[in-house]
Amino acid sequence: MEPPLIVLAPGPGYEGMLAIDSLYNDRSSGGLRIAPDLALEEIRELAREMTLKFALFRLPRGGAKAGLRLAGDLDAEARREALEGFGRRIGPIIRAGLYYPGTDMNCGFEDLRAVYAGAGLSIGRPTDTAFFTALGVSQAIQGCVQALELPHPVTLAIEGFGQVAAHMAAMLPAEEFRITALSTIRGAIANPSGFAPDELRGAKADHGDDLVRHLPGTDLPLESLLGTPADILVPAARTGSITADAARAVRARAIVPAANAPYAPGAAALLHDRGVLCLPGCLCNAGGVFGSSLADSGIPPGPIERLFQTRYRALVRHLVAACLPGRLSPVAVVEAVAEREARARGGRAPAGAPPAGLPRRIARKLTRRAARCLPRAYRRSAVWRQAHRALDALEADFREV
């Protein structure tokens, strides 16, 4: 399989990087991740995860990811200059429509606006992908709980209580779920009685990552969060956070990721052998791309939420129920489906490969331009129908397990 296209874009005070894992319809998409210790390998893995996610839900784009290694203590002006500088360096790729950046870890709306400004483009307020990611994760949790027939209240341990986890905590019914442990980069805390949703929301709004120092409970070593007893473990932090060593310490009945690519090599297989049900990130957190694509097409939040509460939740429930009798791994099942769909699309974009022939590229662009000229209501209807067809296809795939 061909390697992804890697673009290194260093600048004053920062190291920028972009991995385009695949192109579909001559475009790719993925968020911009910002961290002081970001490695190129993490960006490569995330770009591949985006390819699998888009292929799984039959979304018409390839997978990519951008990264910025940036000190966390920069003042606002220095941060903006770095973001604009990175945008200028990858501007030709953005302006050509080959890559569309989005929000991601430590990259908010204003950060994204600065990147586009550096590329010479302006954008409105982007869709809140964290909300739709949380919508998918919350429904995946409920589908998993229904398939496993876990008694209420179901206990949750959350690694990385950020924007996605905060949205998710508000979405889960308080009478059915109890968050008993959580962590941020500032530490970890446990409370067997659970944290009240209003309490979490207020602490997050007032203190950010320092909320762990303002909640009632027992402080935990940060590295012990993954081994905290709970029915469901929700990794919502960095790529590969569940290492083989961490997998041996996990005491949850199931893992439902909010993070992309949370399992380090061998960890999912080890957990499966231990009897821990593992769901894949490319399925559970796909609301960030699947739900957002519907919202970007003009479909109101209400119908999107109902789609996830009904069809998407049922999809996860059917997958788990189908895997349990034969002790199959949902991670292996879903990734096989996603890899098959990615190969059917043409797989990865060969590094340094010439573009498609001019007539083919012109035809593609004319087709997309003509589609934009259609009435907005027709385009919304077409996107809605395509979303249902994608879920139909996934249901058929999972029935064959």
TrEMBL record:
**What Pfam families does the database record attribute to this sequence?**
ELFV_dehydrog, ELFV_dehydrog_N
Tell me which residues make up the Glutamate/phenylalanine/leucine/valine/L-tryptophan dehydrogenase C-terminal domain: 124-380
Family assignment? Belongs to the Glu/Leu/Phe/Val dehydrogenases family.
Q: Which residues form a coiled coil?
A: none
Q: Which InterPro entries match?
A: Aminoacid_DH-like_N_sf, Glu/Leu/Phe/Val/Trp_DH, Glu/Leu/Phe/Val/Trp_DH_C, Glu/Leu/Phe/Val/Trp_DH_dimer, NAD(P)-bd_dom_sf
Q: GO BP, one example? A: L-glutamate catabolic process
By its UniProt entry, which SMART domains does this protein fall under? ELFV_dehydrog (SM00839)
Q: State any single GO MF term.
A: glutamate dehydrogenase (NAD+) activity
- Going by the entry's taxonomy, the superkingdom of the source organism is recorded as Bacteria
Going by the UniProt record, its keywords in alphabetical order are: Oxidoreductase
Lineage of source species: Bacteria, Candidatus Eiseniibacteriota
Entry protein name: Glu/Leu/Phe/Val dehydrogenase
